[in-house]
Amino acid sequence: MSGSSVGVVEAQRIHFSEPLHLRSGGVLPAYDLAVETYGTLNAAKSNAILVCHALSGHHHVAGHYADQPENLGWWDNIIGPGRPLDTERFFIVGLNNPGGCHGSTGPSSTNPATGKPWGADFPIVAVSDWVEAQARLADHFGIDAWAAVVGGSLGGMQALRWTISHPQRIRNALIIASAPKLTAQNIAFNDVARQAILTDPDFHGGHYYEHGTRPMRGLRLARMLGHITYLSDDQMGEKFGRELRHGSFAFDYDVEFEVESYLRYQGDKFAGHFDANTYLLMTKALDYFDPARLDDGDLVRTMARSSPQTNFFVASFTTDWRFSPARSREIVAALLANGRRVSYAEIDLNFGHDSFLMADPHYHGLVDAFLGNIRL
Amino acid sequence: MTNAQGRPDFAVIAGWVAPGHRVLDLGCGDGSLLRQLIDARNVQGWGVEIEPANVLAAMRNGINVIQSNLEDGLRDFADEAFDHVVLSRTLQTVRHTEGILNEMLRVGREAVVSFPNFAYWKNLRSVLDGRMPVSEDLPYQWYDSPNVRFFTLLDFEALCAQMGLTVVERRVLDEAGESIAVDAAHDLNFLGSLAVYRLTRAR
Fold first, then answer.
1. A226-262 tens-digit pLDDT
2. B52–A contact, CB cutoff 8 A
3. CA-to-CA dists, residue A177 to A50, A187, A358, B70, B187, angstroms
4. Option in A333, A370, A372 nearest B76 (CB)
C-alpha cells in the first residue's frame, strides 16, 4: 500500500454533561472524551469511520503533533491519503475511551463528589459502555450511521458490540484479531497482570495518586507478561533467539539474554506513562465482554440482532495465539448462520497478536478492498 | 482453484438459480460466478476460497468470501443455510470427494457440481496416443495440475447412486461450451468435455 501519513494533527476534548449509566451499575455523572479526527466529514455525513482502540490505545491514532514529530499515532500506517482508511474519502474519528488515561475522563481524573482523583472508585466500564459513549460522540458530530467501525483486539470487540447495540448506525464492521469472548486462558493472563499491579506496595488500593506514588513495578510486570502473549514464538526466536548481551553467561540475575533486555525496556516504557487503574479497567472490560451471555451463550441468537444491511469483515492472523483464528471463526459462523454479509480472511503474518498493527500489503489490501466497496 | 477464462458452466448455473436465492460458491476464485449471479439473477452470494490472492480479488469484486480450506469441510456453515451450493470445476481438485459432496448437501438444499470429463473422446485419444490430455477444460500439464481425482461422467453418476444422491438435471458441454443434445449417458460420456449436475438428497 502506498499513500502517506495525515501529517500534523490536533487533539480535541469534548465535554458530555449527560450522565453515562454503566453496565456495572455505576454512573459517570459527566465526562470528557479526548478525540482526534482526520479528513473531512461530507455534507451527507455518510463518510465517517470510527477507529476503536485496544488495551493500551487512545485517540492519537494517526499523524503527529506539530511539536512532537516523533510521536506517530498508534495506527498511522493504515490511515492517510491513499492508505486503506483514506482521509481523502473518509472522515476518521479516534477517541480515548472513558476510563482511559490519555485525556478522557478516567481514574486519574477528579471525582466531582470528592474533589480528589477517582482512583479505585472509578466505576468499572464495559465494552457496551464505550459503545454508548461512542454513539454520543457520533451524535455530537451529527453522524446518524458510521460508514464503518474498525477495531483490532479489544477494539474489534467494540466494533462487534456496535453491530448488536446499534445495528442501524453501523454500515460496515471491521473486526480484526478479536473474539466473541475471552477464553479461561486469556482471562488467566489478565488476572496475573492485575495481581502484579494490585500487590504492588505502591498501589495503595488504587489511591496511589494521593500518596504521590505509582505502582510502577506491578505495571511493568503486567506489560511484560502481556507483551509475551502479543508476540509469536517464532518471531521472538527470530528476533532474540538466545542471544546474550555480553556474549557469555554471568551466572547472576541481571539482564543477560536479549529478550530480557527487550521485555524490561518495553515494561519500563509502558509503566512510565500508563495509568495502572486504567490498565486494570481495560483488562476487566476484556474479561467481561461476552455479548452472547444474555442469550444463554448462543452467539447465533445474539448476532440475529445485527442488521442484514451491515457488511462484516472479520480477519485473524495465523500466528496469533492470544486471539486465535478459531475465535474469529466463531464470529463468522454466527454471522453466516444469520445470513449476514460477511467476509473472513486468515492472514499469514508472523507477528502474533500484534500482526494487526503491521503494514502488510496483503492485509492492508484486504482492508482497502472492503472499504473500497462502501458507497458514500 | 481453477479459474479459467471462458466459463460456459456459468451460464448453465445461472439458469438454475432464482432471484433471492442464497448461493454458496466453493472455490470461488475471484468471485466471477457470484458477481455474475448477483448482477444477472439478484442472488445473495457467499464464496469459499483458500488462496489469499483470490480472497483479495473476490473482496475487490464486492463478494462475501470466507477464507477456508474445503478439505476441512464446511464447519462454519449451518445445515440447510443455502438454496444452492456450487462447486465449479473444483471437485477434481478435492481429495475428500464424498466428504465434500455430503457437506454440500448438508448446508445446501441443492448441490451444483461441474467437472471436466476425463472420458471425453479427445482426452481418450490423447491417452491412446501416449500422452495425458490437455484441453480447454483440462488446461494443465500432468506435472503442474491441481487435479488429484480423475473421473468420468459415468464414474460420477455411479458415485451419486452409491451415495443416494438424486440427479435433478444434467447438462453436458462440448469444448466450445455448447450443450450436447444427446440423451444416452454413454454417448454423453464420450462427447462431453465438461459436465454440470444438479443434485439433491432425499431428506
1. 999 999 999 999 999 999 999 999 999 999 999 999 9
2. yes
3. 17, 16, 12, 23, 54
4. A333
Q: Which helix (H) or strand (E) holds B48?
A: strand B44-49
Amino acid B7: pLDDT: 82
Annotation says A234 is catalytic:
no
Average pLDDT, chain B: 93
User: Angle, nearest 10°, between helix axes A127-141 and A276-288?
Assistant: 100
- Say if CB B3 and CB B187 are below 8 A apart: no
Task: Please judge whether A345 and B52 are an interchain contact, meaning their C-beta atoms are less than 8 angstroms apart.
Answer: yes
**Could you tell me if A292 and A302 are in contact, meaning their C-beta atoms sit under 8 angstroms apart?**
yes
CA-based nearest residue in chain B for residue A329: B76
Confirm whether A121 is a catalytic residue. Answer: no
Marked catalytic residue, from A320, A354, A360, A368 = A320
Taking the whole predicted model, whether its pTM rises above 0.90 is answered as yes
pLDDT tens by residue, B159-174: 999 999 999 999 999 9
Q: Which residues of chain A have pLDDT under 70?
A: 1
Are B81 and A362 a contacting pair at CB < 8 A? no
- Burial class from Cβ neighbours inside 10 Å (0-12, 13-18, 19+) for residue A339 reads middle
pLDDT at B5 over 70: no
What pLDDT was estimated at residue B6? 59
Contact A362 B59 (CB under 8 A): no
- Testing the interface with B: which of A316, A346, A360 to mutate, by most B Cβ within 10 A? A346
Q: Is the pLDDT of residue B4 over 60?
A: no
Q: Please give the Cα distance from B186 to B166 (Å, whole number).
A: 19
CA distances from B56 to A107, A194, B2, B154 (A): 43, 40, 16, 37
Q: For residue B109, what pLDDT band results from cuts at 50, 70 and 90? A: very high
> Is B22 within 8 Å of chain A by CB?
yes
Give me the helices (H) in chain B, please: 8-16, 32-41, 52-60, 97-107, 121-128, 153-163, 185-191
ipTM: 0.95
For residue B76, give the nearest of A336, A372, A373 by CB distance. A336
CB–CB of A308/A340 below 8 Å? yes
The amino acid present at B115, given as its one-letter code, is: F
pLDDT of B156 strictly over 60: yes
Vertex B73: Cα angle to B71 and B75 (nearest 5):
145
Q: pLDDT value at position B136? A: 84
Confirm or reject contact between B65 and chain A (CB < 8 A): yes
DSSP A277-306: HHHHHHHHHHHH--TTGGGTT-HHHHHTTS
**Has A320 been annotated as catalytic?**
yes
CA distance B22 to chain A (A): 8
| Whether A344 and B66 lie within 8 Å, measured CB to CB | yes
Cβ contact B76–A332 (<8 Å): yes
